[in-house]
């Protein structure tokens, strides 16, 4: 059975040939065909001339430059809906208020948890064995410093004033666009 | 002499722990850190001043709240500990992200052909060990890097 080959090379093959994108075996068979086929050789020649001509054309700048408007949009993070943003803020505020309200309960629960290592829980004695809990205690770190109220207020007020004035001076002035 | 060695050793240990932290931050917040690096490069003086002002404010407020917590008991202690922890978190987060940006910037300038994690590794090592230098590193290089990074991070949130 003989392989039936098309009479001429397709435009796609000729383009691939000119782009040097054919596999070595396809390239050899295309070159063999072009040597014997004047019509295909003429088409390749015309295509090559066309590409040379296209490459030699001067580049024309577009009348309207969209890049300045489009690029900042591409850089923006995905938009989060305002509803979700508000919901998250409310949830955070609610969680903070809840924690504050729950604190006395947590404190009461915590105090029942603070058992020294020597104590045993009577509940377990009914099950004919005893269990000693490890010591669970936690204390806030103590600063051990002594400031007068006026000194503390002075430091806090000074830092706040410096913060407000500094940030309003350094951040409120126009910031150059970067990137 | 022992105190100098202890502080230097503390900086070295801190550097070793900071390497994985900064690499993780580079991976989790690449856009934010990149923007902070660009800000620190383009406006270092303003970044440094913003970082200094905000660091001092947050540190003073945290200290004042901790001092009050130290003096109070019961529910007031519980109420005040929340903002104190929030401020401490802000301070820690800002410093970590800022220092991650500065170490990334160092790595990028010195080893531009290496990958992100390698740049973060070398940048953190250089910054950390440089900061371990007695006095000059403790009081000049480290505060400069920390405030520059923190300020650049804060400015990056306000840029349009």
Distance between the amino and carboxyl termini of chain B: 50 Å
Strand content of chain A: under 5%
Rg over C-alpha atoms of chain B, rounded to the nearest angstrom: 17 Å
- The global form of chain A is elongated
Tell me, briefly, the overall form of chain B: globular
Q: In terms of topology, how is this protein built?
A:
The complex is a heterodimer of chains A (179) and B (160).
Chain A: H1 11-18, H2 24-36, H3 38-56, H4 67-75, H5 82-113, H6 122-125, H7 149-172
Helix pairs in contact in A: 2-3
Chain B: H1 2-28, H2 30-42, H3 44-71, H4 75-110, H5 116-131, H6 136-158
Task: Describe this entry's structure for a reader.
The complex is a heterodimer of chains A (179) and B (160). By secondary structure, chain A is mainly α. Chain A has helices spanning 11-18, 24-36, 38-56, 67-75, 82-113, 122-125, 149-172. In chain A, helix 2 crosses helix 3. Chain B is 89% helix and 0% strand. Chain B is built from six helices and no strands. In chain B, helix 1 (2-28) packs across helix 4 (75-110). The radius of gyration of chain B is 17 Å and the shape is globular. The mean pLDDT of chain B is 91. Classes of the chains: A mainly alpha (179), B mainly alpha (160). Chain A binds chain B through residues 77, 96, 99-100, 103-104, 106-107, 140-145, 147, 152, 155-156, 159-160, 162-163, 166-167, 170-171, 175-179, and chain B through 31, 35, 38-39, 42-43, 46, 49-50, 53-54, 56-57, 60-61, 64, 66-67, 69-70, 74-75, 77-79, 81-82, 154-155, 158-160.
């Amino acid at each position: 059975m003989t392989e039936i080959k098309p009479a001429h090379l397709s435009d796609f093959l000729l383009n691939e040939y000119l782009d040097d994108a054919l596999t070595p075996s396809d390239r050899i068979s295309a070159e063999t065909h072009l040597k014997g086929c004047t019509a295909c050789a003429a088409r390749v020649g015309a295509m090559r001339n066309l590409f040379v001509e296209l490459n030699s054309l001067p580049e024309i700048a577009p009348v309207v430059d969209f890049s300045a408007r489009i690029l900042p949009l591409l850089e923006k993070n995905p938009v989060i809906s305002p509803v979700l943003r508000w919901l998250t803020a409310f949830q955070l505020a609610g969680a903070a208020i809840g924690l504050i309200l729950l604190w006395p309960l947590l404190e009461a629960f915590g105090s029942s948890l603070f058992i020294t290592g020597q104590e045993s829980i009577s509940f377990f004695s009914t099950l004919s064995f005893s269990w000693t809990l490890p010591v669970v205690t936690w204390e806030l770190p103590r600063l051990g410093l002594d400031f007068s109220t006026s000194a503390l207020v002075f430091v806090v007020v000074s830092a706040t004033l410096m913060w407000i004035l500094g940030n309003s001076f350094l951040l409120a002035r126009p910031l150059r666009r970067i990137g | 002499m022992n105190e100098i060695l202890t502080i230097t050793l503390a900086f070295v240990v801190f550097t070793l722990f900071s390497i994985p932290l900064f690499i993780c931050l580079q991976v989790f917040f690449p856009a934010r850190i990149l923007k902070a690096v660009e800000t620190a490069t383009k406006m270092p003086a303003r970044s440094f001043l913003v970082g200094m002002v905000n660091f001092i404010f947050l540190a003073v407020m945290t200290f004042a709240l901790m001092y009050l917590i130290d003096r109070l008991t019961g529910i007031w202690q519980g109420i005040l500990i929340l903002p104190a922890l929030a401020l401490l978190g802000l301070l820690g987060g800002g410093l970590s992200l800022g220092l991650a940006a500065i170490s990334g910037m160092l790595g990028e300038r010195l080893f531009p052909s290496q990958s992100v994690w390698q740049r973060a590794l070398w940048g953190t090592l250089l910054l950390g060990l440089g900061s371990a230098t007695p006095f000059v590193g403790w009081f000049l290089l480290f505060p400069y890097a920390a405030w520059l990074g923190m300020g650049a991070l804060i400015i990056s949130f306000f840029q349009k």
